[in-house]
Write a structure and sequence with these properties.
The protein has helices at residues 26-30, 32-46, 67-81, 178-183, 261-278, 297-302, 304-319, 338-341, 347-360, 362-371, 373-378, 381-384, 398-418, and strands at 2-6, 51-54, 86-88, 109-111, 118-121, 127-131, 155-161, 188-192, 198-202, 205-208, 224-231, 234-242, 246-254, 283-293, 323-333. It is α/β, with parallel strands linked by helices.
Length: 422
């Protein structure tokens, strides 16, 4: 017997803000969760799975319209035609209180109770599936503690949407511990909520399959489901299967002291090529971050827009429509001796120190914002409401602008030093 363990599908997750990126494959990114769900169904059918488990967050929240529910019904029907049941558990994103719209589901779909722990027996299978879904979003009690003991003579599976004792980036909903889970005597714990794959334990098996499709740059790497093989009345093994259709990649490059801009771009290109190769013909959505003390720092920050465009041009040349670069982050720094600049009387160095003080001190930033008030009042309306000038009204935004000013001043100082200026 084989079953499929999935979680955190987040069907039709909105992925807001994509329009801000030039050339963004918006449609492909927004359709990714649907296509990944379709691949989940294909895997279950191809592997002749006995059943499919979804351990919470099938949906991302309240449906914008009924198309989200209709798409799921269509995919569940394909499983029914193949004779494959699906068991659902509600999580924090699709808690009973979160989903106002409802549709009748195919009769092969079973949803575990949100009121109390429930044990489900599937016809023709020696399997007992135990679980309780979320009635509300913020479940803070240990649901697993109230789960029933294992059913004798059956393969016992616990379904739970939880961060256990805590996982980075995830609220600690339905907190519990491994001893509590192990005490139930189950053969396999199908967990959800955490988006990174993790085999927490093998005695018994306690597994997070992760989400089936990365949705943003904090969800990088392969995503998919876990195939669980049962033989001789026990779980014999697990296999992770990638089903994502878009692969998010965080490409980091360190610029060396003597690197030219061309050398740095070549290094970026190699990182993008490696990410594209690892994605195995999937669409890659990448972020590029360049760090390090480099002599090219001044040239890069002086025209950061051109540098970002060069990065994107190389991505297009490498992968065409299959490789897209969103953010290009320049976090290089000057190789100049900043301690020596602290005592320099060079006018640019004086400006640099003043900018650094204003960026580092809230009171100075507030006073500078107030002094810029007259200038702000004289700006044309189209500039007055431009987000680029928001720092004129908000002292909290001023430090980031001043750091950009510092980069430009450092670039000018490097030019002077390179030219041998006094």
């Amino acid at each position: 017997m084989l079953f499929v363990h999935a979680s955190d599908i987040h069907l039709d997750s909105p992925l807001v803000g994509l329009e801000a990126y030039d050339g963004c494959p918006t449609h492909a990114l927004r359709a990714a969760t649907r296509r990944a769900l379709a691949k989940l169904v294909d895997v279950a059918i191809d592997e002749q799975a006995s059943f499919v488990l979804v351990a919470g967050d099938l949906y991302d929240g309240a449906w914008k319209d009924y198309s989200t529910g209709l798409y799921f019904v269509a995919q569940a029907r394909k499983l029914r035609e193949a004779g494959i049941p699906m068991v659902l558990l509600r999580g924090n994103h699709d808690a009973e209180s979160q989903i106002a719209k409802h549709l009748k589901l195919p009769d092969n779909v079973r949803e575990l109770s949100t009121r109390s722990p429930e044990t489900l027996r599937l016809e023709g299978l020696d399997v007992a599936i135990h679980g309780q879904g979320f009635a509300v979003r913020d479940v803070r009690e240990d649901l697993a503690r109230s789960y029933p003991r294992a059913v004798s003579g059956a393969i016992n599976i616990g379904m739970l949407h939880t961060a256990l004792g805590g996982r980075e980036g995830h609220e600690t909903y339905a907190p519990t511990t491994l001893p509590v889970l192990a005490d139930k005597g189950y053969d396999y714990w199908a967990l959800g909520h955490v988006h990174r794959r993790e085999v927490v334990s093998r005695e018994p098996f306690v597994v997070y399959p992760g989400n089936i499709q990365g949705r943003h740059i904090r969800e990088t790497g392969p995503k998919g489901v876990t195939l669980v093989t049962v033989e001789g009345g026990r779980v014999q093994g697990i296999e992770h299967r990638d089903i994502d259709v878009v692969r998010w990649a965080d490409c980091a490059v360190e610029a060396g002291l003597d690197d030219s801009v061309a050398t740095i771009l070549e290094r970026v290109e190699r990182e993008l090529e490696a990410a594209s190769r690892a994605a195995e013909e999937r669409l890659v959505a990448a972020r590029v971050t360049v760090t390090g003390a480099s002599g090219a720092h001044g040239e890069i920050v002086r025209d950061a827009e051109k540098f970002a465009a060069e990065v994107r041009a190389r991505a297009i040349d490498l992968g065409g429509d299959a490789l897209w670069v969103g953010d290009v982050r320049v976090e290089t720094r000057s190789p100049l001796d900043m301690s020596a600049l602290a005592s320099s009387t060079d006018p640019l160095a004086l400006l640099l120190r003043a900018a650094d003080r204003a960026a580092s001190d809230e009171q100075t930033a507030r006073e500078l914002t107030e002094s810029l008030g007259d200038l702000a009042a004289k700006l044309p309306d189209e500039l007055r409401h431009d987000p680029a000038f928001a720092f004129l009204d908000d002292p909290k935004q001023l430090p980031a602008v001043l750091r950009d000013v510092e980069d430009l001043l450092v670039a000018l100082l490097m030019d002077k030093e390179g030219a041998g200026a006094p």
